[in-house]
């Protein structure tokens, strides 16, 4: 949610910032701007709309050459997406420029105080207050770092701030609370950013900033102190992916590329999890065995697509561990006084590791002494750092706003956790766990088979281009797949789409069916239980009412094919693993339909990738 960047070094600051913003545009794209210091003065440009608008502005009206600057790409919170509300924001005396990610909750009080001092605001944003406060501090003779620290002590809420002082050559300062910030450490140059993708082409050495810390960078130094002014220890790390992973690699959209990367991402997430004795080992599980054995309830907390992964995981975790498992939307969790204690294992799922709702849920759980395991794709992000243990999904950077490989790898990581718990609590024998992990390891090939047959889904999208509404139904793990299929379609195709539990249909939603309405039906594998037959009955019910059925069923399922207007065959996998193959055509359908409709698949309207506000 908002991408911010700062640079000091020998390169052209404008070039570094614009390239960096391009790679962070997924974080927010309703306006963008940058400011540099040249000849002891600030110069800046900002523009509503996508980054291309700012780039066009710079063509017509270039900025002076500079080696010190800051930039921002915005997802609006306070104030609409206008030129005036775009960042950077400047102090009234023109000395300070600030970019901000987050929400300053006591902004109204600060604004009133500043206005009483005679400050005239140029925007409706909460962020502008910081620029004025900072310049007031500098006017009293404070240095830039101290002035920023003192401003931070006056702020409530979530913020990453990066600031530039026209009178402080070769340095930039930044601060973070509840919002991401990393330092990119180069040779004779340094970077500050919300996401390492923005500077990965220049350096893979990074420092993660801790909570309530302020940093000052010059071309040759990085100094980190707490808001209180104490020197803070830094945590350097090496980024384990490179520029090519953050580029589209010949695909039209990041989302499409990421759909096709799923076999690799799932394989990487499974890599190295079985030790020489055939035992499942999760290196990052830092919760001791006694504690894991005493767990009597699991609560999975997540948002959006990650929540759907949690809904799927519940079936497997309860089945394998026999521990009751609840799944809850993070934004609802802590406001309902949940029953959580030291024997509740809280599992959070987050691709970005920065989602504010999920982070607040973790803090609440830890206050109740519950151990927290994070399932996360972003090394060193706030959520894993604030958890007791973490299982990383090794999906590589996910840039498309609609999550795809994030989702499938989250399911796999949850399954590993479930099997690990079953192993550590002695509910499953080692060979049973190893057999299930082997079956999981077969999934990348089976996902690839689905990817190889997607021409049919492209044709389906062409056929459904005029659809006004699409329904998705499924049972058991097929139900969250239906929810996720509908979410993908809503968020990038802007189409009315709903997912239902197939058995629930007759309790109301079946009234929506009218002749020709497309319904995706996720049919479970033909197993020993009656699950399959129940969905076939639901399939017949909707078809009898005129629905146009798109049936996802395992290869050779004659019964399912009888009731299909369009049949999408899936590889034969166990029921619990079916979501990993069934979701792929649904992701692709949404991507294809949005492309045909001419929408921006990677940057759908109103959304942002990393939701760092509650
Ligand atoms: C939908 C989507 C969102 C995210 C949700 C949680 O495609 O991407 O629903 O899943 O915002 O994000 P993370 O996983 O980063 O916590």
Which secondary-structure class do the elements indicate? alpha/beta
Largest sheet: 8 strands, antiparallel
User: Could you name the CATH class of the largest domain?
Assistant: Alpha Beta
Which stretches are low in confidence, meaning pLDDT under 50 for 5 or more residues running? none
CATH superfamily of the largest domain: Aminohydrolase, N-terminal nucleophile (Ntn) domain
The average pLDDT value, as a whole number, equals 93
Which percent band covers the strand fraction? 15-25%
Helix content: 25-40%
Count of DSSP helices? 20
* Spatial arrangement of strands, main beta sheet: 3-2-4-1-10-9-11-14
Global outline: globular
N-to-C span: 11 Å
CATH topology of the largest domain: Glutamine Phosphoribosylpyrophosphate, subunit 1, domain 1
List the helices and strands and how they pair.
Elements: E1 3-8, H1 13-24, E2 31-38, E3 41-48, H2 51-60, E4 68-74, E5 89-90, E6 96-104, H3 107-116, H4 128-139, H5 144-152, E7 157-165, E8 172-177, E9 182-185, E10 190-193, E11 205-208, E12 213-218, E13 221-226, E14 235-238, H6 254-260, H7 262-270, H8 289-293, E15 297-302, H9 304-321, E16 325-329, H10 330-333, E17 344-350, H11 356-367, E18 372-376, H12 382-385, E19 389-392, H13 405-424, H14 430-441, H15 443-452, H16 455-463, E20 469-474, H17 478-493, E21 496-501, E22 518-522, H18 531-544, E23 548-554, H19 558-562, E24 566-570, H20 578-596
Parallel strand pairs: 15-16, 15-17, 17-18, 18-19, 20-21, 20-22, 22-23, 23-24
Antiparallel strand pairs: 1-4, 1-10, 2-3, 2-4, 5-6, 6-7, 7-8, 8-12, 9-10, 9-11, 11-14, 12-13
Bound molecules: fructose -6-phosphate.
